[in-house]
Every structure is written in C-alpha cells, then in structure tokens.
Write a structure and sequence with these properties.
- With about 450 residues, the protein is α/β, with parallel strands linked by helices.
- The chain has two domains: about 280 residues, UDP-N-acetylmuramoyl-L-alanine:D-glutamate ligase; about 130 residues, Protein-Tyrosine Phosphatase, Chain A (Alpha-Beta Complex).
- It is about 40% helix and about 15% strand.
- The strands form three sheets. An eight-stranded mixed sheet has the order 4-3-2-5-1-6-7-8, sandwiched between helices. Strands 12-13-17-14-15-16 form a six-stranded mixed sheet, sandwiched between helices.
Length: about 450
C-alpha cells in the first residue's frame, strides 16, 4: 500500500459512520499485538482545549527526554497531522506501512470491519509502538468511556474544560457529559489532572469527579497560575514553581498550559524545569487553534465550534488584535448550537461573511446570516469558503484583521489558501535525517 492508497482507505471508512463501543478496537489491538502495552500514557479528555493540551503535554515530555507520541483529532492539514512523534508528523511511508498493517488485521476481528476513527487510532498506536515511543499523549475523539482511544490504561487522565456538546450522544447536562469523559479511567483513579472550568460548570464537573471517587491535581488548587498577559507567567504545582517566559495572552491558553504542566509532571514523577518548558514551547505548532497568521490583513484561525469555545475565542481576541475588530468568515456544522456561538462572537466582530464548508454536515449560510443580522452584525452569504475569505480580506484592508471560525472543516478548506505551501502536509515531513532519527524508519521496514 502506497501513501496515497493508505489515505484513500482511511477516507473511505468515513462511509461507515460513527459507532460507539470498545469491542472492535480491543480486538484490533489484540490482533496487532497490543503495540503500546506498558507505555506510560496521558489520556486527554474534555470538550474544549483537548488538542492544545495534548500537543503541549507531549512537547513538555519530549523536552524532558522522553520519546513522546501525540495523537490528536480532527486534523486541519491532512490525516497524518494527527500522529506525531517528538513534534514530527509521521512520514508518508511510515503512515502507509502502519495503515497496511492495520488493514491486514481488520479481517481477523469479529465482524471484519472498523470505523474510520478506530482505524486511525490503531494506526497511531502501531506506529508509536514500532517507533519505540517512551510515552504517549492521546486525545479522545468523542466522549471517553466508549471512545476508541479508551484502550490505553492511561497513567494520567487530563480533563479539559467541559461544555454542552454532542448532547445526543453524551448526555444533556454537564455532570453527565463529564462522567462520560471520565469513564476512560476506573472509579477511584488517583491520576486525574483537572483543568479550569467555566464558573457555571465547575460544580457539576466536581460532582462527576466525586461520583467516581477520583482524585489528583486541579488547576486553581494544587496547580495555580499567576501573572501572564505580557509578563512571565508562573505555574505552581506540588513539585514547585515554574517561571514561563512565553507570550500567552489568552487566559484559557494559560490555563491549558498549566494543565499540560501538571499532566507532564505526573508522568515524570517530578517537577519540570524552566529550560525544558521553554524548549518544549519553542516552535510548538497547533494548527487551527487560536492560530495567528501575520499579514495584510492579519488572519486568525480558530475552530471554535460550540458556545464555550466561541466565548473563549471572544475573550482572547482583544489580547491578540488590540482594538481591531475583525471581519469574520463563519461556517458551521448542522449539529452545532449556532445561536450560542454567534451570541459569543457577535460583540467582537465588525461584520461577517457566512459560507458553507465542504463537509456534508455543513449548514447552509443563509440561517447564519439571519442570526448575525438579528444580533446587529452586518452579514452576507457567500458561495464557497475561498470566495468568502477573499471578500473578508478586501473589506478588512491591509491594516485590518480577518477571523475564520465556526468549524475545523471550514479551516481545512481555507488553511491552504491562507498559508500557501505550509498549509498542506508536504510529501515528507522534514529532512531525511530528522525523519530517520525521530521515527526510526528502519524499524518500519523490517
């Protein structure tokens, strides 16, 4: 199987839809020889901030000397973006070998079929095992208890901010949703690191933790964040105090970093040092998550796809853009709370162009335009994301700003346009010597 065929196979599995349950993934792991058995893992669950926390935790562990695999979802630039070792995206040849191995194992499991996310999870874990990773940081896809990633037996569970999302699958209140996400660990689990929650949700999340008799560290209690916003921030954990000299203007991003620090320290069994944190954060990329692209105009990309994520984005924009109010390009999926998202974004944008992303679940732009106008925002519907971006850039002018938000599917359509060649995954993932050293490609050829 060549790399193109591997990606076609994965993409074709989307037709099977999304099916909860652990029977298939457990059988698939058995068929593959449970490639990551015994590897210390952090399982990142929650509603918002999971990808950021996953990538930061992995970067901190890599900077501390552990060969660390990071598995995230969804992607913005391509399937391989989801699988990285020490920050290096899996090369096409290694992805193809992993996909071929997983595909060959599928007929040996009951039913002989897997979902797309199960296949990707198996590809990632087989690749990390083959590359002999020392540690893993894995982002749950949807929920936790019945998510395909719940085969880890993780040493640490990091719970990010919990909000109402996917209520048809996870429950219709915060405590129920948090309980589903915490279901990746057994009752009485002591390796929890609990992230900062919205004030309205904090009591319900704590109730879910208590109901499962879990314990660990909590951002705001055992982990405390100080300063920031242009000044060195401090993160205090039971292991000591870190001074982090990094530009992290958004409060939620500082809280996510504190959660990542706590998770990394729980894996290491010791405190981090400032040098390792600086090394880990240097050059850390997080496509489509509060991503600022300098230019004329500046473009901000954020996949905010639920009201809580949109509120966090709205809070962060003034710290990033100052007094500039951006012209927005907005597109959403049909199953999202469009009204709640627009309630958060309307006060911080100047005008908007609504469009429809290429995903089959994308909603038509006309209802979005109507809701924006009801909230006092000048808005128009534009056919096609690229054309909407062109209109927004023209209106913003060289000294203005454009915001692209509402769905990671919309960002996937526009990142190649905004970033040019760097907005797509190259045919390889870096210099040959880097790939060979990081991914140990000779092991994939055996």
């Amino acid at each position: 199987m060549d790399p193109a065929a591997a990606e076609r196979w994965v993409a074709g599995l989307d037709l099977m839809g999304m099916r909860f349950g652990l029977e298939r993934i457990r059988a698939l792991m058995d068929a593959l020889g449970d490639p990551c058995r015994g590897v210390p893992a952090v399982h990142v669950v929650g509603t918002n901030g999971k990808t950021s926390v996953t990538r930061m935790t992995a970067a901190l562990l890599s900077a501390s000397g552990l060969r660390t695999g990071a598995y995230t979802s969804p992607h913005v630039r391509g399937w391989r973006e989801r699988i990285a070792l020490d920050g290096v995206v899996i090369p096409p040849a290694a992805f193809a070998m992993a996909a071929a191995t997983v595909r060959a194992a599928v007929p040996r499991i009951p039913g002989g079929a897997v979902t797309q996310f199960e296949a990707l999870t198996a590809i990632a874990l087989w690749a990390f095992g083959t590359a002999r990773a020392d540690a893993l940081v894995v982002e749950a896809g949807l929920g936790g208890r019945l998510d395909a990633t719940n085969v880890l037996g993780a040493r640490v569970v990091a719970l990010t901010a919990v909000a109402l999302d996917h209520t048809d699958l996870l429950g219709d209140d915060i405590e129920a949703i948090a309980g589903e996400k915490l279901g990746v660990a057994p009752e009485g689990f002591t390796g929890l690191v609990l992230g900062q929650q919205e004030p309205a949700n904090a009591a319900a999340v704590r109730a879910a933790v208590t109901a499962r008799s879990m314990s660990g560290w909590r951002v705001g209690e055992e982990i405390r964040v100080g300063a920031g916003n242009g000044h060195p921030m401090t993160i205090r954990t039971p292991n000591g105090v870190l001074s982090v000299d990094a530009a992290i203007p958004a409060p939620f991003a500082r809280a996510n970093l504190a959660l990542a620090v706590g998770a990394a320290e729980r894996v290491l069994g010791r405190g981090l040092n400032a040098t390792a944190v600086a090394r880990g954060l240097d050059g850390l990329a997080n496509p489509g998550r509060l991503q600022v692209i300098p230019g004329a105009p500046t473009v901000v990309l954020d996949g905010a796809h639920n009201p809580a994520g949109a509120r966090a984005l709205a809070q962060a924009l003034p710290a990033i853009l100052g007094d500039l109010r951006p012209v927005a390009v907005i597109g959403m999926m049909a199953d999202k709370d469009a009204a709640g998202i627009l309630d958060a974004l309307a006060p911080v944008i100047r005008s908007a162009y609504a469009t429809r992303a290429s995903s089959g679940r994308a909603v038509r732009p006309e209802p979005i335009v109507r809701m924006l106008r009801e909230r006092g925002v000048a808005a128009d519907a534009v056919a096609g994301p690229v054309r909407a971006l062109e209109r927004a850039r023209a209106e913003a002018g060289p000294d203005g700003a454009v915001l692209v938000a509402g769905s990671l599917h919309l960002l996937s359509d526009l990142v190649p346009v905004v970033l040019g060649p760097s907005g797509t995954l190259a045919a390889d993932s870096g210099p040959d010597e880097v790939l060979a050293t990081v991914w140990r490609l000779d092991d994939f050829r055996k």
